[in-house]
Amino acid sequence: MNTRDLSYFRILVEKRNYTEVAEMFSVSQPTITQAVKRLEKEFDSKLVHVDRVHQKTEITRSGYLLYEKSKVIQKNIDLARKEIKASDSEKIKFGLPPIIGTLYFPQVVQKLAQESLFQKLQISESGSSELLNELDNGNVDIAVIATIKPIQNPKYEVEYLGSRPFSVIVSAKNPLSKSTKPVDFRDLMAERFIRLTGKYIHSQMLEDYCKYYEIEPEVVYDTPDISWFKSLIRANVGIGILVRDEVGEYDRDLVCLDIANPLPESFNISVVRRKSYILKPDEQKLVDILQRMNIKNTNGGYY
Amino acid sequence: MNTRDLSYFRILVEKRNYTEVAEMFSVSQPTITQAVKRLEKEFDSKLVHVDRVHQKTEITRSGYLLYEKSKVIQKNIDLARKEIKASDSEKIKFGLPPIIGTLYFPQVVQKLAQESLFQKLQISESGSSELLNELDNGNVDIAVIATIKPIQNPKYEVEYLGSRPFSVIVSAKNPLSKSTKPVDFRDLMAERFIRLTGKYIHSQMLEDYCKYYEIEPEVVYDTPDISWFKSLIRANVGIGILVRDEVGEYDRDLVCLDIANPLPESFNISVVRRKSYILKPDEQKLVDILQRMNIKNTNGGYY
DNA sequence: GTCCGTTACGCCTGGCGTAAATATG
DNA sequence: CATATTTACGCCAGGCGTAACGGAC
Fold first, then answer.
1. Hey, are the CB atoms on A44 and B84 less than 8 Å from each other?
2. Do A251 and A137 fall within a single domain?
């Protein structure tokens, strides 16, 4: 079977027009007819039904089945091409979400520089969910990713680095800040919340807690920006949820509160790559260094 | 590009022997050489290096990259072939784990019979993790599956049916059975446990609880058999964890205890299928009926 | 006639086999 | 010499284009 035929067919399913497909590939129109016939013979099943009465080309169920597979096939061919093309490049396509970058990356930068790895990094700074897409299409080969739930997709090779807890963050002006013991999430029912959007994990986290305790939170402000988020909380406009480490010693007038009976969902940090990707020596070095990165493990999380 | 070439190459990577590959496909040996050359030209990269000095054929990094992709491609071709071949069949390849079958299936059997669907079911009775494999390779097209954590693999189409809580199950002879309020898992630290193996979810569940509360459970017996499991607990040899519904009114001398501060992990039941699979009308009907299956939702779980 | 897809036929390349060549032990 | 792969060359089929055909407006 020829992958060209599959390509013709894929576009045919999307365009429903033999002539257009032929033009797209700069071939004659009968070529497309013949390619479809070849596939129909190969799979011993009608794939396309041309309904001249209603002037439309219909794809049979078998056709759709083949279409779905052929999309995956094309994706893999493209990926192979991309990966092989980049084989000689020194660059390491590396994905690093900003939060993780600022929190945990500084400690390894020196080490990376020593090994002459740092200058080879071609960093994509995106959120974790975005990075998984980039991994899929080969724009990123290795990523450090934070998720609340473990990544259990056999398509990825996942190496767990550690977990950090989430905490409730309030203004020093807020009476809650006087509490010395862990706060029960249910007691926050009446509070107003500032929500961190964009960073998928943080908003998801809030949602999970509210769902688990059946609370309907009053969200007074949504922002994707961490400094703005902190400012609003500092001004006691509302309270929020954040990875504990993100509030440092320089964040005055902000108080972190531990959560009593925390959900086992924490800020889980992992090194992720495509299982079908083969690391170059430099990339292997990078992964080794990342694995030795020191992320204090606090609560169990999922791993 | 020709998928035959990819097949030759795949086997070559596995066998490292041109002659063997040729024999396997009943072609002449130069055919394999030529196929590899074609691929190397197509991807503009050396894929195989024949080291005559050390008498071995080495696969280059590019070769491995292509190999990984070509496995996926082959899988998809096979799947397409399998699915299309089964297109005319009335049979519905359905996966149903025994536990779910006995607990929740009876209520829909009549409905299925009415629609003449029941006799079309070709049921694979395996555990949930096994069924995901069967789904992958096309031996099963639709499965009802129980998982503790949500299935978040974009390859599957998942429809959530409901969640059921796990509970601690003890003998009526056990002092714990007198408790009227939910039991705190930490209080079970000193207990002996009977563990249900095989059914992945149940053993995983116990492990998760123990890990979360940092308990090292004393497991006195492992069994994959539910009746034996129950008998041992009834005899107060130990206590166990089980989906609540599995203990029915006929299970005398067994007591279910709710768990205080339960983990959000419950027995989540979903209908799962391959995203790339197109349902036949009968299969759509089955899925519709399953979706209306009544699984009392108790605790939030993950969904 | 126009629009689209199919059929017919001829051309050329792509994939295969045979046989010979090459390299290593 | 034997073994394993590559090169050379010839054969046939597979994939393409051109041109003619067919059905619906």
1. yes
2. no
